[in-house]
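Write out the 3D structure for:
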Amino acid sequence: MPIYEYRCRKCGKRFSVLTLRVSEKAEPQCDKCGSKSADRLMSRFAMPKSEEARLESLADPSALGDLDESDPKSVGRWMKKVGKEMGEDFAGEDFDQMVDDIETGGEDGGSDE
């Protein structure tokens, strides 16, 4: 059963459509805004890697070399890396938007000054 991933053109939310057969035409509809206008995304593929191996790779000091905790863009890049390593379930549905806001200094990612 194929799962196709899409990004809504109206609101930008990423969502999935499950079909019963490869030959079945997927009809994407955003579950956030209801729009049927969406772009199909390149799906990720599974690579068997234990949780322990994922955590070890994140704990590697060389992986933290460019992390500057006082720079929101640097923290945002690191958060995306952690999210990708841990899988989409770890990240949650609004994770990418939150990190993008942090990286661009958006309304939720700006400083409190």
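The CA atoms of residues 83 and 96 lie 9 Å apart.
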